[in-house]
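As agreed, record copied across for absentees:
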Amino acid sequence: MSRIKVISYEESQGRLKEVYDDLIKSRGMLADVHMIQSLRPESIVKHMDLYMEIMFSRSELSRADREMIAVVVSVANKCDYCQTHHGEALNNYWKDKKKLEEFKAGYSKVGLAEKQIALCDYASKMTLHPGEAVEKDVVAPLKKNGYSDEAILDASLVVSYFNFVNRMVLGLGVHLENHAGAGFKY
């Protein structure tokens, strides 16, 4: 049960109904993370604009890389909702549920390339210890693994976005839907 009022699809009208309908059309269905913002429909629109830019725009980081970062951040924050949704998205690329579950338990133990481990380390450090971030500990390993400044910015945007969403989900009591993240357009 969420901790604030949420307007369901059935109760929606006007601008909120338009926003909900657009989400269903573009993403395949409506998620509770969208509906938690129902009291401010334009915040849903801006949220989705940010999400689409960060997660789907052209980047050196693959979609799988970005979903991998999303899962690392969500595991660090203990956000089951986002772990489930973005684990489902990551597995859309990996197609290996066992690897996904092992990844959630410890990303360094699933046979990722050094380059991917560097991304995961970055996501973990910037989530758990952002105040301790120094060049040699966070950015240098990414550069050593061939990531450009643009790719590092993209990684930072994904980390920042998921820290934002995890806190909204956890703070407002967003619960996992019955479909558990399955069925969205990834």
About this structure: The mean pLDDT is 95.
